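Anyone up for a design puzzle?
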């Protein structure tokens, strides 16, 4: 689990996080506040990259981070997951769960879109 170096709290699944061009990750709100008075990374003081190159790097690293998080979640059986974890996995899979209220429906939806969640992955 990563820690936001600004507020010193762990980044949890479902938190809004931002990956800088220098590959440091922070809560989006913490970084927005930091960048209101500084245009550098809070950890390494690198200048914030702008333009298409910076955006492409951020998107690639955010995808990699999402994939790593998803791979770690596959280690759990869906029955061992909290509702928040199930919703995060559905979001990672880009599956809408709007209007789904019951846990059993969330589980069914997840197993329908990711059958590997029903068994442990070695």
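Challenge accepted. My sequence:
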């Amino acid at each position: 689990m990563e820690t936001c170096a600004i507020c010193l709290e762990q980044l949890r699944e479902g938190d809004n996080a931002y990956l800088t061009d220098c590959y440091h990750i922070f809560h989006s709100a913490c970084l927005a506040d930091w960048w209101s008075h500084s245009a550098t990374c809070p950890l390494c003081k690198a200048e914030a990259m702008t333009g298409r190159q910076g955006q492409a790097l951020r998107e690639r690293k955010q995808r990699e981070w999402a994939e790593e998080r998803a791979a770690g979640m596959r280690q759990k059986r869906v029955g061992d997951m909290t509702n928040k974890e199930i919703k995060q996995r559905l979001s990672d899979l880009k599956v809408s769960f709007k209007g789904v209220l019951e846990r059993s429906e969330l589980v069914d939806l997840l197993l329908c879109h990711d059958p590997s969640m029903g068994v442990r992955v070695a």
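A detail worth pointing out: The chain has a mean pLDDT of 77.
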